[in-house]
Amino acid sequence: MAASERTALGPLVGAIDQGTSSTRFLVFNAKTAELLSHHQVEIKQEFPREGWVEQDPKEILNSVYECVEKTCEKMKQLNINIGNIRAIGVTNQRETTVVWDKTTGEPLYNAIVWLDLRTQSTVERLLKRIPGKNKTFSKFKTGLPLSTYFSAVKLRWLLDNVEEIRKAVEDRRAMFGTIDSWLIWSLTGGKNGGIHCTDVTNASRTMLFNIHSLEWDPELCKFFDIPMEILPNVRSSSEVYGLMKICPSRKSGALTGVPISGCLGDQSAALVGQMCFRDGQAKNTLSQYWFKILILRVLKRYGTGCFLLCNTGQKSVFSEHGLITTIAYKMGRDKPAFYALEGSVAIAGAVVRWLRDNLGIAKTSQEVEKLAADVGTSYGCYFVPAFSGLYAPYWEPSARGIICGLTQFTNKSHIAFAALEAVCFQTREILDAMNKDCGIPLSQLQVDGGMTNNKILMQLQSDILCIPVVKPSMPETTALGAAMAAGAAEGVGVWSLNPGDLTAVTCERFEPQINPEESEYRYARWKKAVMKSMGWETSDSPNVKHCNSNAVIRVVGWRIEFRED
Q: Where does the signal peptide begin and end (predicted)?
């Protein structure tokens, strides 16, 4: 691109993409959707106890400032005028919970990440108050089951266990929010007038939000004993929330005055970025709904879960097969909310990180792909990575990860293959549930995210589903969705969401290469392994004693029991 072309690019839109493993800032051309520049910073995860997952909210915020600064520097080097950035969108890891002091701007505890399991005892205590211990008691208000996954139980745990937070609530100093709220409040001024808000997609993941009235629900807040005054104001996914302010501690002000005007939870942002919306879609039959499998990115060597969303238009559809109902987006203050059915899997790409960091069988995600490619089979080995229990369609927190079907022939390459295959089997489970709810089988699957760079995985996915898998050439659909929402906001208006104005995306296609009988056989074996993974843990389980060197290992079915002489 010539220098004159760079300076005449027209309006640009930035996107903050804050994920579980990293933060990025990306800048897109609002007319062509071309990615012009970006910067990424990896984020630490802390594991203070088994099942606990935390992150430092200040580290997350500083990573945003660093990404913005570095991206702007890169743009200047490319002779691209940062003054053309007209708006900024935010997309974020959902459910992760932060409480901070509005008078000091300081977090009162680490962020509790969506994967965290510490709240299982909280869930069980709450269940005792529900007739029949019905986990879906709030399904028709929130679309969600009672689970450790969602924000309300994390917030309840913080109020029960962190004295500093209890005191701040009593003193009316406390603010609660998911990562989007923490970032928008901080970036628009923080303790000096920051805007305390969230959007409908993030609010719908708290278990405190009525997805029909689009308001915080007083009855649910009373059930969880959450003071409503600490909750953020709920806004649409596309409107001006506030203006970027200079960060006093960093003297970072490259984009001061630019409006933050888009906000979407990561899966909703990817839905928008893949342009999965049309006027009048709610009037269409289920066969005309767009299905998306949104595999969260493995940034460099990191990853998280996988999620399947079906846009059901302006009608909320409730699953009979373990899926949840959520808000897909609301693209303007006066625009209607669109809904989606969603299947969530806790561990997908993160299994690659586990193979690297915990087992040490590979140094990179690319090496895991090579190991799997070397053997082309798991040789009867099945891996259920239920590190955080099982999400959809089981919602079984007592499950734990297992590797079964091992023989003396099994090696690290077979385990690597089984790990990738596990991602595909989990996708198959939630796709089967989606097909049952909708009554019409899917003819092809559109995929998204960094993990789709793994060609072995994409081919396995097609083989296990027995349908084509289609991968768009534009990999940054999550950030793109946030940018589209920001650029389309009233008062910004630099990005058209009219279907005729949206840029067509080229795709790579993977076709099934095994017969359906083999696929069904492998899937049935996987389901057997899943059943074996359940019932391992309860909140009152005693602490497991480490086996000494004289421990005897006894194999029972596919489980391994340890007992000491």
A: none
Amino acid at 466: C
Other beta carbons within 10 angstroms of residue 352's beta carbon come to: 28
Q: How many CB atoms lie within 10 A of CB 401?
A: 17
Residues comprising the chain, all counted: 565
Lowest mean pLDDT among 53-57, 234-238, 246-250: 246-250
What gap in Å lies between CA 376 and CA 414, rounded to an integer?
8
H or E element that contains 41: strand 35-42
Tokens of 229: 């005054």
- Rounded to an integer, what distance in angstroms lies between the CA atom of residue 133 and that of residue 344? 22
Residues sharing a CB contact under 8 Å with residue 68, sequence separation 6 or more, in sequence order: 14, 16, 25, 252, 254, 255
- How many Cβ atoms are within 10 Å of 191's Cβ, its own excluded? 14
Q: Give me the torsion for CA of 389, 208, 184, 119, rounded to 10°.
A: -30
CA-CA distance, 357 to 355, in Å (whole number)? 6
CA–CA distance, 30 with 13 (Å, rounded to integer): 6
Cβ 306 vs Cβ 267: under 8 Å = no
Can you count the helices (H) and strands (E) in the chain?
16, 25
Amino acid identity at 151: S
- Taking the model in full, what pTM does it have? 0.82
Structure tokens at 74: 């890169």
- Other Cβ atoms within 10 Å of 138 Cβ, number: 22
Query: Of 38, 36, 43, 42, which is closest to residue 10 (Cα–Cα)?
Result: 36
183: left (phi over 0), alpha (psi -120 to 50) or beta: alpha
Tokens, residue 213: 């009235």
3-state helix, strand and coil shares in percent for the chain, rounded to the nearest 5? 35, 25, 40
Helix (H, G, I), strand (E, B) or coil at 554: strand
Beta strands in 467-522 (DSSP E): 469-472, 507-510
- Report helix, strand or coil for 369: helix
Q: 234: how many CB neighbours lie within 10 A of its CB?
A: 18
Three-class DSSP labels, 179-216: HHHHHHHHHCCCCCCCCCEEEHHHHCCCCCEECCCCEE
| Contact status, residue 270 vs residue 308, Cβ threshold 8 Å | no
For residue 504, the model assigns a pLDDT of: 61
Distances in whole angstroms, Cα of residue 23 to Cα of each of 28, 257, 489, 563 = 17, 22, 23, 44
What is the tens place of the pLDDT at every residue in 263-273? Answer: 999 888 988 88
pLDDT (tens digit per residue) in 31-84:
888 899 999 999 998 999 988 999 999 999 999 999 999 999 999 999 999 999
How far apart, in whole angstroms, are the C-alpha atoms of residue 28 and residue 479? 9
SS3 386: coil
Strand partners, 87: 13
Cα–Cα distance measured from residue 284 to residue 278, given in angstroms and rounded to the nearest whole number: 10
Q: Which residues pair with 330 in a beta bridge?
A: none
